[in-house]
Amino acid sequence: APTASDRGNAARPTPDDAEQALAALNAAPIYFPLDSSMLPSEATDELSRIAQALRQRGLAKVTVAGHTCELGTTEYNIALGQRRAASVRAYLVNLGVEPGRISVISYGEERPADANAPEKNRRAEFSFRVAEQARAGEL
Q1: d(Cα 39, Cα 87) in Å, to the nearest integer?
Q2: 48 assigned to some structural domain
Q3: Residue 103: helix, strand or coil by DSSP?
Q4: Which regions of the chain are under pLDDT 70?
Q5: DSSP assignment, residue 123?
Q6: Could you give the number of structural domains in the chain?
Q7: What CATH number is associated with residue 59?
């Protein structure tokens, strides 16, 4: 028969559970038009799918990274990348993802996806992680 301490351990996610939760979370980049942070209409299906996956995985968090092509100044591109990431975040929040689970960062032009295809650099990308659960008194 299970003991009280066995029941307490059963509720904790194992490293394998966390890996499976992350493996199920993947997302294609969202591509933006030149000099724009407005979400393209074709992005809504992907963002809806991401939002649903995040709502189903309460421990998952996401970072949205905004990127630009090399056109424009470094300062402008950092700001544009930030606006792109923020527009994705706002859309996910509107779909019911808790704001505290979504971080944004801008890399501007610093991390091109393809140096020969600027349109592939105008994007927002996603990275997922599982939040660590910490309880008082537990190590």
Answers
A1: 7
A2: yes
A3: strand
A4: 1-24, 131-139
A5: E
A6: 1
A7: 3.30.1330.60
